[in-house]
Amino acid sequence: SSTEQRYSPANELQAELKNTTHTESEGESYPLGFAVAQIHGVYILAQNVKGLVVIDMHAAHERIMYERLKQALDNKTVAMQPLLLPVSFNADRVEVATVNDVLTSGSDTLKQLGFDIAVLSPATLAVRAVPTMLQQADAVALARDILRELSEYGASRVLTDQRNTLLGTMACHAAVRANRSLTLPEMNALLRDMESTERSGQCNH
């Protein structure tokens, strides 16, 4: 009988761990291991040198985005991505008033958060730019949530004592959604991001 080793995900995993781990403690470089499958469109099933790891992909990605947004806001470097075509939407009077208040007060709160929102009419707003990290999010839903936070807490408080709540709202929009099918490289990239992100095992909520 042939002694040739057959291919299997487990064999590939062991080979990859041996080839990429260069620390005294085997697997220390990649404590979350490598993705094996996605379950129910919600969880990433991974295998490391110690066994099985189950990760809620949305919660994990949300935490990663939260920490990145927090760092950018701390450094005043929230990059803004102008939209090729501004997205206009029917807004209620509170949303319009909130934008007007921010703009007329001379506050740059929206700009600090990476947004450019304009008043087109008493009942219409236009999103002209969003934070680069959130450019894949639904611009209207994101803008509405940010305006709700601004309306409720005010431009000054939203960047101080309510900042963590605001960042959580933004991060949730940026995170990969449940039931989205990820490839193995995408799942592994998420695992590597988790390993390099502070408090990545802690849910924002």
| Major sheet size, sense and barrel closure | 3 strands, antiparallel
Q: How do the SSEs run, as a string of H and E?
A: HEEEHEHHEEHHH
Shape descriptor reads elongated
Strand order of the largest sheet: 1-2-3
What do the pLDDT scores average to?
A: 85
Count of extended strands: 6
Say what oligomer this is: single chain
Query: Which class of secondary structure composition applies to the elements?
Result: alpha+beta
Strand content: 15-25%
Instruction: Tell me the radius of gyration.
Output: 21 Å
Number of helices: 7
Helix content: 40-55%
Q: Roughly how many Å apart are the termini?
A: 56 Å
Flag low-confidence runs. 1-10, 20-24
Describe this structure in words.
With 205 residues, this protein is of the alpha+beta class. Helix content is 43%, strand content 21%. The chain has helices at residues 9-20, 57-74, 93-104, 109-112, 139-157, 163-174, 184-195, and strands spanning 34-39, 43-48, 51-56, 80-90, 116-121, 124-131. The strands form two sheets. Strands 1-2-3 form a three-stranded antiparallel β-sheet, sandwiched between helices. It has a three-stranded antiparallel β-sheet with strand order 4-6-5, with helices on one face. A hairpin with a 2-residue loop joins strand 5 and strand 6 (124-131). The protein starts with 8 loop residues before the first helix and ends in a 10-residue tail after the last helix. The model is unreliable at 1-10 and 20-24 (pLDDT under 50).
